[in-house]
């Protein structure tokens, strides 16, 4: 987890509806994703790209990310060239399937940053994992290294993943469990931020089901969730935020352990529970996240 950011919620806004960005920024979402891919018809790609580029230059905000078209599309290079602005820090790249994809994206970003007078390496990548090939190769993808380093983390895209496999998304999501389980482990092993979970699309009105799905994702090791409607933000933020009692307990754990460690002990009991280095490491991560979320 970055010392300066955490993404519990990232809310999509169609590139065709830039009038909704202000409302999205005010929704409580940690990030807003302006979508140039699925939300924009082929006939309007160039037009909407120009409008988004102009919007970013005039009203850019570090919380605004852009989902560009895929690296294998005819639109990708022009997307990057036009939207690379001083406030754009992260792009969402769909259909990332290999280390070679990361290298190719990096090359285009380097060229665009130079042409637009930006610092080399300013724009990070969140790669969307949306195919069987990507899930199968996830360990290699997250270990892809560039100079400067680009890959911030990955996100899971269940709609395209299930379409690739020819299966349907169900309410309990059992068909997604294998892919969901692999992403957090791979990111942790590679030293990346925890991944973002797929949007909840089964029933936008069923917020209890949304909350249950978010809780499953948290338990698997995701840091947050992609969202497609403002009414999802509060529920998902709550799931991925430490509860006051968790923060209080984490402080007690760290304080008690540091005191014991200074006295030469490597394991203690606190309120009848065993505390050692792994327990303390989790407590420190809870306090780190709480500190990040307290920042304005």
Layout of secondary structure:
Layout (H helix, E strand, L loop, with lengths): L8 E6 L6 H5 L5 E5 L9 H15 L4 E4 L8 H8 L6 E4 L5 H17 L8 E6 L2 H5 L1 H5 L8 E6 L1 H8 L11 H14 L5 E2 L9 H14 L3 E4 L5 H7 L4 H19 L5 E3 L2 E3 L1 H18 L2
Helix pairs in contact: 2-3, 3-4, 11-12
Rg over alpha carbons: 20 Å
Helical/strand content category: alpha/beta
Q: Counting H and I runs of at least 4 residues, what is the number of helices?
A: 12
Tally of discrete structural domains: 2
Order of helices and strands: EHEHEHEHEHHEHHEHEHHEEH
CATH structural fold name of the largest domain: TIM Barrel
The biggest sheet, with number of strands, parallel, antiparallel or mixed sense and barrel status, is: 8 strands, parallel
What does this structure look like?
The chain has 296 residues and is α/β, with parallel strands linked by helices. It is globular. 39% of the residues are buried. The mean pLDDT is 93.
Provide a short characterization of the protein structure.
This protein has 12 helices and 10 strands. It has 296 residues and is α/β, with parallel strands linked by helices.
Protein traits:
296 residues; TIM Barrel; alpha/beta; 2 domains; two-stranded antiparallel sheet; 12 helices; 10 strands
